[in-house]
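Pasting as-is:
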Amino acid sequence: MRKRHLVGAAVAALAIPLTFALPAQSHGYISTPPSRAALCGAGGVPWDCGEIQWEPQSVEGPKGFPSDGPADGTICAGGNGRFAELDDPHGGAWPTTQVTAGQSLTFTWSFTARHATSGFEYYLTRQGYDPSRPVTRADLDPTPFLTVPYDGSQVPQSVSHTATLPGDRTGHQVVVAVWDIADTGNAFYSCTDVQF
């Protein structure tokens, strides 16, 4: 009897680390223009991105942004400490996509789990944003520059949204995109650095 308990305990002890070593369930992220998570996943930055490099699709946090959701300074990681590297501004050194104020820009999400979706919202940092600091709500325009309702429909494998960028920005700015899931209390967060 004792031998059976010891074998059972040994199997359980081995199973626990294996459970935590398995990748998290996949979800989605902005692949184009490359978000911080996409850049990390592709090895596109000169620093260690930590865990996000293996699962750029997993930046999930509480929904309700901007009134609820991740705390200020943790927005790009969705409030998830495992992905805190996404909130580190690296002195403003995140690679940027060149854009022009007032131009159209298409954002493409890549999904690895196709959730029922309430919608998508895109926010932009205000003129004067300091890219050497983590993003806070005070840094963002309170109104999204693009809102895409999805009415609970399931997303396809990828989806693109085209927006006209605000005409009053210069310098390094950050787009914070939020994908609200319809049937859970969570959303996915994706930060993309752009240079006007």
